[in-house]
Amino acid sequence: MTKSKVRTRFAPSPSGFLHVGGARTALFNYLYAKATGGTFILRVEDTDRERSTEASFKIILESLKWLGMDWAEGPGVGGPHGPYTQSERLTIYKEHTDKLISSKKAYRCFCSADELESKKKQAESMGIPYLYDGKCSDLTDSEINEKLTSNTPFTVRFRIPNKIVIVDDIIQGKVKFESKLIGDFILVKSDGFPSYNYAVVIDDALMEISHVIRGVGHLSNTPRQILIGEAFGFPIPNYAHVSEIVGTDGKKLSKRAGATSVLAFRDLGYLSETLRNYMALLGWTSPDGKEFMPDEELCKIFDISRCSKSPATFDVFKKLKEEEKETVEFNKLDANGLSEYLNPKSKLNWMSNKLIREISLERLGKEMVPFLKDAKIPEEYKSGTHPALLSILDSVRVYLDRFIQAPPYIEEFFLEDLTFENAEAKSLLTDGNGISVAKAFYANILSSETNDADAYKNLMAKAGEMSGEKGRTLFMPIRAITTGKSHGLELPILFTLLGKEKLVKRMQILANQAGIQLN
């Protein structure tokens, strides 16, 4: 294939949200099209009438737009090969079905659902795979007309030729399938809607798709699709079946094993380019082994042939405890609920923190706006442009893996009703030599006029010399008397942003609550 002829597609079914597995498939198609100067197409496969919904359709489009994967052809964009929604292409499928029936490559099957179910159960009881027995494959024209006249419901089945089907897959290599093990399968359901395997072949051919890039779970569908394509005389696209994605437990992603909506990552406060970068590495490696890459680089170097056969590990969530495995459903958790199960050492967090440190301060403020809506800070700071807010963000960004973490840090600077967060935080001050440390640090603050991070480090060190403490027994009492907490921002940075006046006031309030005289 020349670069100008590469055409890839993402064809989701609107029966739920867009999860990581689907988003990675879309991304690989998008990146390969970009890297080869090709065209990325979006097609909606909504022929499953029971499961497809308009709400899911909108969520999928919203997800793709947030991820920045713009399609050159498809819903909302149009193009020369539309319509791009399968439910609007029924006439096209019927025309092709009529051709297959007239050429004896397909036939009407009048077997009832009950009859087929009975045969399936019989095969199962015998321990053999169920294959349609071809009962309706040789009905005479008069028998067919009689059934049609009496309005007997029917499906349309493909007449399987006896041959070996070879799938020459870009990632998986050559895979052979015996057609006799497939059986005459259904092309058109009794409601007149095409099956997935049928519609996808016609659409790919008419939309001139050159590369079908999808999950390895679809590999077993490929021989059926190749046989249908050959029956029509269609050019067979290049297939690339990407590896399975597994969670930290080594099992396929599911609602209980990390599968969640792509938009959940937006709500958690990850940047879309961070998630794209992370997903690109789920089963693919760059030529030089680099992991942190801007979009422009990914769109230049991505090559589908560099994908691995081995399962890719989605390490975003921690491995669930035994008691959680039957109760936690990731797809039902909101951002706060998901936060509890995030793996702090995931590659996604590493990438996210790196990017948050690098983006412009102006963009950081803009991206933070949705997360400041309910923050306990003055309204004028919620626009994301206030100089004081940007100064705070510049100081705390080093601690952020995602924006949802920022409000507690920001709120720290505006606290008026300061109190100890729990008994543990208070005990850091009152136990051991904590009171002596607090008094020494307070005295040093009062006698100092400097207000920079290095100066505060020196004042803390001096308090250590005066009290005879160092390390944890020095820093934790100081944190407790200045914040009322046992964890948080690096203290010298916090003190610099608070300023001497606020810092002294805080220490006095918390000392009073602990019943301590600082001087």
Q: Please tally the β strands and state the result.
A: 11
State mean pLDDT (0 to 100 scale): 94
CATH topology of the largest domain: Rossmann fold
CATH superfamily (homologous) name of the largest domain: HUPs
The strands making up the biggest β-sheet line up spatially as 3-4-7
* Major sheet summary line: 3 strands, antiparallel
CATH class of the largest domain: Alpha Beta
Named at the architecture level, the CATH assignment of the largest domain is 3-Layer(aba) Sandwich
Shape: elongated
Structural class: mainly alpha
Number of separate structural domains: 3
Percent in strands: 5-15%
Which stretches are poorly predicted, pLDDT < 50 over at least 5 residues? none
Span of the ends, CA to CA:
81 Å
Structure, described:
The chain has 519 residues and is mainly alpha-helical. It folds into three domains: 3-86 and 245-313, 3-Layer(aba) Sandwich (Rossmann fold); 89-242, 3-Layer(aba) Sandwich (Rossmann fold), CATH 3.40.50.620; 423-514, Arc Repressor Mutant, subunit A, CATH 1.10.10.350. Helices cover 43% and strands 9% of the residues. The chain has 21 helices and eleven strands. The strands form five sheets. A three-stranded antiparallel β-sheet has the order 3-4-7. Strand 5 and strand 6 form a beta hairpin. The longest helix has 16 residues, at 20-35. The radius of gyration is 31 Å and the shape is elongated. It is an enzyme of class 6 (ligase). GO terms for molecular function: ATP binding; glutamate-tRNA ligase activity; tRNA binding; zinc ion binding. Residues 5-316 form the Glutamyl/glutaminyl-tRNA synthetase class Ib catalytic domain.
